[in-house]
Write a structure and sequence with these properties.
Layout lengths: L18 H13 L25 H22 L2
């Protein structure tokens, strides 16, 4: 299980009205990620996620979750 105390997203200005909803959806997507180990990580930074014009909030949230999962898995395999 993944527990996140704080999630900070930097979205393009035109997503201002959708940011809260996207954040909530991203947190829900991240909550579904299964991990077999326990580790406390103070923070991670992910590379920018490409958002295509007209993407639905859930699509954006899923891309964010996939990027976070890749970063966490990378940390585990490289020991960073």
């Amino acid at each position: 299980m993944l527990t996140i105390d704080r999630l900070r997203l930097h979205l393009p200005p035109e997503y201002k009205e959708r940011a809260r909803h996207i954040s909530r959806l991203a947190a829900e997507e991240l909550a579904g990620i299964k991990f077999s180990h326990t580790e406390k990580i103070e923070s991670i930074n992910i590379s920018p996620v490409k958002i295509m014009h007209g993407m639905a909030d859930l699509q954006v949230a899923r891309q964010i979750a996939v990027s976070v999962e890749k970063q966490l898995n990378s940390r585990r395999t490289t020991g960073v």
